[in-house]
Amino acid sequence: MPVGIFRVCLVVITAIINHPLLFPKENGTIIPENTEEIIRRMKEREEILRLEQRRLEEEIAGQEAKQKALEKAAKVVEEKKEAKVSWDMWTAISLVIFLLIELWRQDFQEGNWQDIGGEEDDMAILGRAFKGVVLPDKTILASFYEKRILGTTGDMARMREMVEGFADDLLEALRSVCNRDADMEVEDCMGVGSMYENWRVRKPFVCDLIVPFAPPEPYCFQSQTWCSGDSFPPDEQGYGTIKVCRAGVDAAGCICDKTKLGEDMLCLLHSQANITRPSSEMEDLLCFKNTQYLDADQVMKWFQIAVTKAWNRISHKYEFDLSFSLLDSPGALKIKFKSGKSIAFNLTPVVQYENSDVYFISHFPRNGLAADLPSSTHWFLTFAVYERRFIQLVSKMLPANACHVSCLQILSFLHGKQCSLTGPSGLSNYHLKTVLLHLLQARPCQDWAPEKLEARLQDMLKFLEKCLHEKKLYHFFIGNGKVPAELGFPIIFQRAEPLNLFRPFVLHRDVYRKTVDTFHEMLRNTSTLINEYTVHIPHAHTNGIHKESL
């Protein structure tokens, strides 16, 4: 039975497999119409797929471009953020620096413009130069001062009295020979400088006298300084100009004070053409050619001629000769006695600055740092009268027999001796006095007791070397807001920027190097110089000096 069923199934299967409609023969023929339709559909499908592929490729390319643009934009934004952060940081730093500079400048204007510094800072600044330098003790210094310096003060007093009396007589004769209607009006002379501040030690003694003068009526002087708002280059700081005008005429040239004119309007009543003086007349008023500015060279020429005429008028009264002694210092005069002795003094014309005791000086005493004037119409300002008053004012508050003048005299003597050995340097006695003025203002009064001479002399040397190291020594009055009110010092100079007296050292390195070398050599020779000029010192002290110098 099962075998029969199997056979039946086998037959059915074979019949199905061999049915011609289910599996056509391999070599069967296909109808041509169906083949062309299939090929056409396949091409259409291929074209559709190709277009779809192109569309997809374009979409992908567009998305990639957008992605790159977004990435680039994000990168630019990030860079801008970083740049902004960096710029903000530099802006903040610049603002902080500006604020610090402004605070520092205000400290200068309040008077903290010449840093005295503490003892530790001073010793750090001195470094090798002061290492191993030991000054003589106060006993030796006191003996040196008494034997070598103090004995000359009596000679100074007698010389001042003689020179002042003669100068008064000479100026009185000068007034008599001048034309009161055309020449300058000469006032009484004033003594300034070391001879009148009692600290001159080096011979020959020279008295410095200044002679204020004013123009004849109806003229007046109008002064302009570097700190009065006018533009002056850095190399002209400390100078000013003097304009000769008619009294009541402003700087613009109109004498009508009450007329309020616009910038584009002209006063026809008082026009410039009506008030301008001929060139020859302005030159008669000692002005520079074709200008209204006072010429220092013309002034000195006029003054020398006037002094010569005055001396010719009174020479018969005296038993000595008078002559101009130095060609580069027009006001330098010398009295020659028949015995061969001589007395030198400087008689220099000056112009008063407004209603103060600051003066425009025609010719300033030259030193190693002195530069040529920008022009003969530029006048240097001198504060010598206020310097003398300040020393007198402070001296009244110091202990009896204070050592401030002694310190300056000893330092001036040592520097002068060193310069005579090694040649001149850029330092002058005026620089040494400026150092003393700074220390007088910084130190308490009790620190200037006579027994503290050695300590204060060290302070001056330390402070001076610090200034040389920094190439900065500021003028005592200019920019100093702590000037005592009792002096009546003009506020315009107190509010001015500090004036660096050592600025030429920055420009002239050879002079600076020579000055520093001379100063260091002076430090090394201090004990030897003082010991050489000291007599009758106990043997123990002198042995100590020799050991220190070795």
TrEMBL record:
Coiled coil regions, renumbered to chain: 39-80
Pfam families: Mab-21_C (PF20266)
Topological relation to the membrane, as annotated: Single-pass type I membrane protein
Domain Mab-21-like HhH/H2TH-like: residue ranges: 405-478
Keyword annotations from UniProtKB, A to Z: Cell membrane, Coiled coil, Glycoprotein, Membrane, Nucleus, Signal, Transmembrane, Transmembrane helix
Keyword Nucleus: yes
GO CC terms: nuclear outer membrane; plasma membrane
MF-aspect GO terms: protein kinase inhibitor activity
Cellular localisation: Cell membrane; Nucleus outer membrane
Family membership noted in the UniProt record: Belongs to the ITPRIP family.
Described purpose of this protein according to its UniProt entry: Enhances Ca(2+)-mediated inhibition of inositol 1,4,5-triphosphate receptor (ITPR) Ca(2+) release.
Protein's name in the database: Inositol 1,4,5-trisphosphate receptor-interacting protein
Organism in which the protein naturally occurs: Eudromia elegans
